[in-house]
Amino acid sequence: MKARDGMYIGGQWRPARGPDTIAVVNPADEQVIAHVPAGTALDVDDAVRAAREALPGWAATPPAERAARIAALRDVLVARADEIAETVTAELGAPLQLSQTVHAGVPVLVAGSYAELAASYSFEEKTGNSTVLLEPVGVVGAITPWNYPLHQVVAKVAPALAAGCTVVLKPAEDTPLTAQLFAEAVDEAGLPAGVFNLVTGLGPVAGQALAAHEDVDLVSFTGSTAVGRQIGATAGGAVKRVALELGGKSANVILPSADLAKAVNVGIANVMSNSGQTCSAWTRMLVHKDQYDEAVALARAAVAKYVPGERIGPLVSARQQQRVRGYIEKGVAEGARLVAGGPEAPRETGYYVSPTVFADVTPEMTIAQEEIFGPVVSLLKYEDEDDALRIANGTVYGLAGAVWAADEAEAVAFARRMDTGQVDINGGRFNPLAPFGGYKQSGVGRELGQHGLSEYLQTKSLQF
Ligand code: NAD
User: Fold this and answer.
1) pLDDT of residue 179
2) CATH code assigned to 6-246+441-463
3) Which end of the chain is less crowded, N or C, counting CB atoms within 10 A of the terminal residue's CB?
4) Which residues are bridge partners to 358 per DSSP?
5) Measured between alpha carbons, how far is residue 90 from residues 32, 77, 95, 313 in Å?
6) Annotation says 165 is catalytic
7) Which residues contact 312 (CB under 8 A, 6 or more apart)?
8) In the prediction, which pLDDT does 1 show?
9) Which own/partner pairs from 233-239 qualify as long-range (CB within 8 Å, at least 24 positions apart)?
10) Cβ(298)–Cβ(264) under 8 Å?
11) Is there a catalytic annotation at residue 279?
12) Distance 68 CA to ligand 1 centre (A)
């Protein structure tokens, strides 16, 4: 696989300051496919300096021109979609079709939405005798995970650029090749030097240096709660803005009036997609006690279609595979009933985990509380609507969810009572303009659409 041996800083590929590299592994066959430089605090410093230097010019660029550059970036992502999909498949392990439709496709929609927003957004408001200017926050440090390697990058970089901010990106160490492709796309799109900069490297080294850098104005992080907590504390100490997109344990609430077969099938597909490595996955399926046995049978049949190596890929790394298998063992040990799958690896090579369904899961079990980040669904039984709501809201997370009912209004009434940032009603489709982000410990701030743009703006009021 093609890899760059430098960092993209100040509009150029420059040699890294240190000699260390990171091996990139294809999780489907465990082969090393490339090496990328492991950045240090010195590389981060260079990148932040370049972003700072580029800031006044980019912030003063008329929004229509910023919009044109973001549109050009979207066009490059379209032109290079095949290469992007192949790269995501190689380093993440996603089946090629998923890489094409979701991993390469969604970033095009998101970049396109910000090209439009940058052109149409009013960066000035009037209230009483004041004019409020919406100005860029400044230099953004973006730290992204591996699960949606390009989407997570575009969901931060596109709104930051639309707002007039400049960016330093530290992508996940497991998926740096997609991030390098993105940097090439930025270059090809003709963004001015220093507006976007890339430093590959390890989280505790390059990530930490970026999060703690005193010349970064806003840190936008997506990843684990443990690291997010640390980044939030560092940013708080330095009095700088922070956006955190953390984990989830979302509930798929199937009300008794719903089309049970459809709700169960879509619910299983939702978790199996991307091998369960989706922060918004509906990993808890809540079913009324009278329909529970039927739902378990439907779930067992639905999950059988996900043959590892065909319809479902491996997990990203040996570490994640171990982690998820550990959770499955814990589910068994705590008394949940295995309906499909289990802790044994389904293939000898590759970091695969068996698509797994647990029944008789109770709300206090570890597998009903903690984010597993693998192809594992827990079916929980509820007595009545209030019980379902208690279970749905009974975790520290609140990122996404689903409600199914015969009547849309019935589902909406339930969704209004859920403590969560997004709810799909009867299988409602992904909307790249809808704000995405967490209640409770799922995070701070929102991504996507207009709400995502305002994360990167600060106000200045002029009184007349
Ligand atoms: P992680 O939080 O360790 O990594 C996310 C990003 O943060 C990566 O770019 C990483 O290099 C960086 N990072 C790591 N330590 C850092 C530090 N001390 N300072 C600054 N940056 C740092 O996540 P992970 O280990 O890759 O995954 C672990 C778990 O996190 C998963 O199993 C899952 O539960 C959760 N996760 C959630 C999401 C999400 O979208 N919400 C994405 C990935 C992982």
Assistant:
1) 98
2) 3.40.605.10
3) C
4) 338, 378
5) 10, 18, 9, 11
6) no
7) 95, 272, 275, 306, 355, 375
8) 85
9) 235/211, 238/212, 238/214
10) yes
11) yes
12) 33
- Ligand 1 binding site (Cβ under 6 Å of any ligand atom): 143-147, 170, 172-173, 203-204, 207-208, 211, 222-224, 227, 230-231, 245-247, 279, 371, 373
Q: Which protein residue's CA is at the shortest distance from atom 42 of ligand 1? A: 223
Query: Given the structure tokens 């997990």, which residue do they identify?
Result: 315
What is the greatest pairwise CA distance in the chain? 72
Fold entry, domain 251-431: Aldehyde Dehydrogenase; Chain A, domain 2 (3.40.309)
Q: Where are the domains of the chain?
A: 6-246+441-463, 251-431
Spatial distance between the Cα atoms of 348 and 381, rounded to a whole number of angstroms: 35
The residue written with tokens 């090439």 in the block is 184
In one letter, which amino acid is 347? R
List, for residues 197-236, the tens digit of each pLDDT value: 999 999 999 999 999 999 999 999 999 999 999 999 999 9
Partners of 13 in beta bridges:
8
This prediction has a pTM of 0.98
Of the listed 184, 245, 410, 455, which one is catalytic? Answer: 245
